[in-house]
Structures are given as structure tokens and as C-alpha cells.
């Protein structure tokens, strides 16, 4: 456990070209391409339809009911970053809203993922500032206790290090370690190309039973057809 009250300024972010490459793919593709790793729990949901983000993580460790460290984190944001916030214990308070979104956007942030609550959803939708959160909750927070910024955090069961790539869309949120970003982007591209070939075969009427050579294994297990 990292001590509270730390802000790490020096962050080694994933290669920008690799982040751009990853932004072309959906969460499901990235997750599969990475060996089915890195997913956050599915209770983290977009606060408005169509929200999507891909960027390098500025991480935040929050205290329940206290959003002070989100303001501290804003200073550390660079163009292309996304803020990724966990909490020392479960909390669904409304840590984040339109004013903080305005501040983060001015710093170049591409969105927020938070294992906590968010409010001002209509404003965020109008701004098109993507937020993925545990809850939507109008309950406000205080600014009284220290957390940390740019330390490893666990967010919805996923470990996030500063500088990792975070991809989020309607299917969920996936975290790609910075050192694997280029590798995973390449694997995702190959996977999409292979899927397009399968998609065309399905359009042509071929069954998954034949495409994936399932008939033999099913017969070995005793699957029986009755007419």
C-alpha cells in the first residue's frame, strides 16, 4: 500500500503512437488481444450513451466522500491523459461533475474513469466529456482528507499504473500496461482482420459449427440429434 499524501510528477506514459493505434479498437477486442486480461468490473458504466475514451492514465486514490485529490490531479494532466480514480473504500458519492470536467478539459484530459459516483450528467453529455463511473449520484463531497496522485491504484478490481492506457466504451473499461501498448495494438489489428474474414463467412450462411470445427468435439461428448 502506498502512503497517502503523495503526488508523483514524473510519469512514464505509454508511447503516443501506440495509444493512437489502440484508440481504433473497442474494449472487447483489446481485452481479447491482451489475453483476456485487464477488464474492470462491469459495474463501471458510461454516464451517457455514446461515451468513449482512450488515453494514458493519471491515477488518483480518493478517500470516501472527498474529491480533493481530483483537483490535485488536474495539475498533473497533460494532453491525451485520462483521469482514473479509485477509492480507499467503496463510495458512491458524487465526486465529479461539470466544474471539474471543465477544469480537466482545459488541461487536455480525454475523460474520467472513477470507482465512485458522478453527477451533472446532462452537462457532461452536452460537453461530450466522457465519464465512466460506479454510480450517478447527486450527493456532494468535501475537501478534507489526503489521498494520492500517480500511484498504482486498483479500480473496480483492475490494477492501473500511471501512464497505462485505458480504453472505455459501451462494453466496459480495459487497462493496457504501458509497456504492452504497441504489442496489444498489433494483436488487436490482427484479431480484427481475422474477424472480418469470419464475418463474411457468417454473412454467406456458414455456421459456427463448421467454421470452428465444433461437430467432432460435440459428437465425442455425446451430443445426439433426434428427428
Task: Report on the architecture of this protein.
Its EC number is 4.1.3.17. This is 4-carboxy-4-hydroxy-2-oxoadipate aldolase/oxaloacetate decarboxylase. Keywords: Lyase. With 227 residues, the chain is of the alpha/beta class. It contains 8 helices and 11 strands. The strands form 2 sheets. Strands 1, 2, 3, 4, 5, 6, 7, 10 and 11 form a 9-stranded mixed sheet that branches. Strand 5, helix 5 and strand 6 (131-136) form a beta-alpha-beta unit. The radius of gyration is 20 Å and the shape is elongated.
Q: Gap between N and C termini, in Å?
A: 62 Å
Number of helices: 8
Strand content: 15-25%
The global form is elongated
Q: What structural category arises from helix and sheet content? A: alpha/beta
Note the run of SSEs as H and E.
HHEEHEEHEHEEEEEEHHH
Extended strand count: 11
Summarize the main sheet: 9 strands, mixed
Helix and strand layout, with pairings?
Layout: H1 16-22, H2 27-33, E1 45-46, E2 53-62, H3 68-74, E3 81-87, E4 94-96, H4 98-106, E5 112-118, H5 121-127, E6 131-136, E7 148-149, E8 153-155, E9 158-160, E10 165-169, E11 172-176, H6 181-203, H7 208-211, H8 215-220
Parallel strand pairs: 2-3, 3-5, 4-5, 5-6
Antiparallel strand pairs: 1-6, 2-7, 2-10, 8-9, 10-11
Helix pairs in contact: 1-6, 2-6
Organism: Streptomyces fungicidicus
Enzyme class: lyase
Protein name: 4-carboxy-4-hydroxy-2-oxoadipate aldolase/oxaloacetate decarboxylase
Structure in a nutshell:
The chain has 8 helices and 11 strands.
Looking at this protein, list some descriptive labels.
4-carboxy-4-hydroxy-2-oxoadipate aldolase/oxaloacetate decarboxylase; 8 helices; alpha/beta; EC 4.1.3.17; lyase; two-stranded antiparallel sheet; nine-stranded mixed β-sheet; 227 residues; elongated
